[in-house]
Design a protein that fits this description.
Strand content: 5-15%
Structural class: alpha/beta
CATH architecture of the largest domain: 3-Layer(aba) Sandwich
Shape: elongated
Helix content: 40-55%
Mean pLDDT: 89
CATH superfamily of the largest domain: P-loop containing nucleotide triphosphate hydrolases
Number of strands: 7
Length: about 425
């Protein structure tokens, strides 16, 4: 079911306009040696695009997989491509699938051929090239990102497979509800949609039926494909969306992202640690019990493991999402650290210095210190920060949640300590 020309490609219209790099490479009259890196999720057309270009470009086409190829194989391709270009003026297109699996040394072997134009490299990867492809190779290539196929695209893929002479050739029909289920469970992956359709058709055929039903699709695909790579973009993107949903007080979205991570096999301890950070950074003293609950959830997960650990994780997630938010404590420590790094500190006031060792009294340490518990309210007028930071306010509480009460109390405390008028 691979497309036979670029016009047959379903989806990725942003990469296939007139004059685009892929159109240029596929043009038999083009002498361009521009290399490209195709980056996108599985089943979005990276390999199909390479094969379409191979059909139409009028150049020698060589395909390697980073799973099985090594430096020796790459150098052999480069040597042959260089010879054909020098002797016959024939260009070579090298399609390298899963380039992210190549080591730095293996990727280095590609550089001479790409830089000198011996080959036009089409490299495919499902991982962010910024992390998986060496900079010299990226700088000599055009990075093209493929998008997930939409449900409309997948529906078109399925319909073409049902009717095309090189597909199921009209021997089967697909119930509308079965089509919707198949498309939904394919999660933007055309390869998965076609595989599921093929399996469902085999089930129907074994029962001498021409209609593919919901039950056939359900038997072919037991659950939706979850796009998640614990070392790739999805790992970072989903946890980012999870934390931002909590910060944005959307418990429904937060629970969705939690479920995605759990189903993908993410380390629950990683999720729990991020909940503890969220409770401290985004909620803080607006709801102090949030940190306690997050830490308790982390301990519970460590003790009971999965799958039961999903329950305390869900409890903490929902509580944090619903809690009033404040990053005042987070901002306070960041601001204080910034001042310390900038040299804004100074000596500890002498009355606060340790006076418990021999000779301290002779140095005046602790002299004039006022013991707060001796006052009626447990608060006394006294300088606590270094001279350079007197009057500096690091903690600026909000008026949300319990922090509203703390804000009033803090104003009163500062008035007493600094001898200010309320």
């Amino acid at each position: 079911m691979r497309p036979h020309s670029l016009d047959d490609v379903i989806g990725q219209s942003h990469l296939l306009g007139q004059g685009s790099p892929l159109r240029t490479i596929a043009n038999p009259e083009s002498t361009s040696t521009v290399s490209v890196v195709l980056w996108g999720p599985p089943g979005t057309g990276k390999t199909s695009l390479a094969h379409v270009i191979a059909r139409t470009a009028g150049r020698t086409f060589v395909e390697l997989s980073a799973v099985t190829a090594g430096v020796k194989d790459v150098r052999a391709v480069m040597d042959k491509a260089r010879g054909e270009k020098d002797l016959y003026g024939t260009g070579t297109i090298l399609f390298l699938d899963e380039i992210h699996r190549f080591t730095k040394a293996q990727q280095d072997a590609l550089l001479p051929g790409v830089e000198n134009g011996w080959v036009t490299l089409i490299a495919a990867t499902t991982e962010n090239p910024s992390f998986s492809v060496i900079s010299p190779l990226l700088s000599r290539s055009i990075l093209l990102r493929l998008d997930l196929l939409t449900n409309e695209h997948l529906t078109e893929v399925v319909e073409r497979a049902l009717t095309a002479s090189y597909g199921l050739a009209g021997h089967f029909t697909l119930a509308e509800s079965a089509r919707a289920a198949l498309v939904a469970m394919s999660s933007g992956d055309a390869r998965r949609a076609l595989t599921a359709l093929d399996a469902a058709a085999a089930i129907a055929s074994a029962q001498n039926r021409q209609e593919i039903t919901d039950a056939d699709v359900e038997a072919a695909v037991d659950r939706a494909l979850l796009r998640y790579d614990r070392q790739g973009d999805e790992h970072y993107d989903v946890i980012s969306a999870f934390i931002k949903s909590i910060r944005g007080s959307d418990p429904d979205a937060a629970i969705h992202y939690l479920a995605r991570m759990i189903e993908a096999g993410e380390d629950p301890r990683f999720i729990a640690r991020r909940l503890v950070i969220s409770a401290s950074e985004d909620i803080g003293l607006a709801s102090p019990q949030a940190l306690t609950l997050a830490v308790s959830a982390a301990e519970a997960v460590a003790q009971i493991g999965m799958p039961e650990g999903r329950i305390p994780l869900a409890e903490a997630t929902i509580f944090l999402a619903l809690a009033p938010k404040s990053n005042a404590a987070y901002n306070a420590i960041n601001s204080a650290i910034a001042d310390v790094r900038a040299g804004k500190s100074g000596p500890v006031p002498i009355h606060l210095r340790d006076g418990g060792y021999p000779g301290a009294a002779r140095l005046g340490h602790g002299k004039g210190y006022q013991y707060a518990h001796n006052s009626e309210h447990g608060v006394v007028r006294q300088q606590y920060p270094p001279d350079a930071l007197v009057g500096k306010d690091y903690y600026l509480p909000t008026e949300r949640g319990q922090e509203a009460e703390l804000r009033t109390r803090l104003e009163n405390l500062r008035a007493i300590i600094r001898n200010m008028d309320l």
